[in-house]
Amino acid sequence: MKIELYIAQLLYRYQCVTVPGFGAFLTEIQSAQLIENSNSFFPPKKMISFNSYLKNNDGLLANHIAQAEKTSYDYAVSAIEYEVLNWKKALQENNSISIKNIGVISLTSENNLHFTPNEQTNYLSESFGLTSFVSPKVKRELEVIKNTTISEITTAIVEEEKSLFNFIPDTETKKSNPYIKYAAILVLGLSVAGTIAYPMYQNRIASETILVETAVQKQVQNKIQEATFFIKTPIPAVTLSLKSNKEVTKLPYHIMAGAFRSEANAQKRYNQLIAKGFKARVLGINKNGLYPVLYGSYSTFAEAEKEKNTITTSDNPEAWILIQSL
Question: Are 28 and 35 in contact (CB under 8 A)?
């Protein structure tokens, strides 16, 4: 019976596979490798080594053979012993044996066993289907700029500018370099245009920012002024005596229920709140021409905050606290 196949099957699953009476094959996971000199890439793999001192039968190989061959455990042990005898005999005669897909075991001059693993087989199941490959070297072409050319152009422009500012005519220069004059004028023109355009650009940005802020504030004010409430069923009129603004301002923290341009709408909202049990108030018309309606007024912020949390949960999620300075 050839046991190489069963040893190879177990090497995919276990780190150590012992061949009773001969030695043990050990595995160690090696990470992916890159060899820069040859641009070669190698996937992760299991490195196989051999230890001739681990000879005790751990039952792994014999039990696997018994299940695969559907035979008894004792018969599998006998088959392993017979194969080991053939291996040892081959080592004595040929000084080496080749175990398929695993490696070559040779006998040294000191009668020690030397193992050379088979590099072609990867026993790491996670790397199944991955092979090594060589990547061609990437050639990068860099654009070389001639510094001498830039220096010559810069020098010519500087000389031309000097002649323009000093009003010294240079007939030979004009004849030899007819475009340098126009290049210098273009550079000066761009500088002047940039000096003028940049402040104008900053002023435009500032103006647009002010317009956006004004529009946002206007939308907020319109939302407050257009707030109104519709009542599905008529509520009987309630005659109440309202406290003056002086009495209200003694309590600087107010929970707002709404602000109405119409005093009638403010009164309707007020009646709604009274019907629900709130100590509602209606303030006098403010500077925006609106009648604020309050859920109630409080002397401390803590009281107002506590009541506001209750109101936002049970009645109006958009209720908020108005603070008036005394």
Answer: no
Element of type H or E holding 297: strand 291-298
* pLDDT tens-place string over residues 103-113: 999 988 888 89
Rounded to two decimals, what is the model's pTM?
0.40
CA distances (Å), 266 to each of 78, 243, 304, 315, in order? 103, 15, 21, 17
Is 98 in contact with 116 (CB distance < 8 Å)?
no
C-alpha 77/C-alpha 74 separation (Å) is 5
Give per-residue pLDDT as tens, 38-70. Answer: 667 678 888 899 998 988 988 999 999 999 989
CA angle centred on 261, ends 297 and 278, rounded to 5°: 30
Q: Exposed (0-12), middle (13-18) or buried (19+): which is 223, by Cβ within 10 Å?
A: exposed
Beta bridge partners of 45: 30
Give me 198's structure tokens: 């940049």
**Interval 227-239: pLDDT, tens:** 544 444 444 444 4
Range 215-221 contact pairs with CB under 8 angstroms and sequence separation of 24 or more: 221/288
Which residue from 112, 108, 69, 105 is spatially nearest to 84, judged by alpha carbons? Answer: 105
Residue type, 316: N
Rounded-to-integer distance, Cα 99 and Cα 90, Å:
12
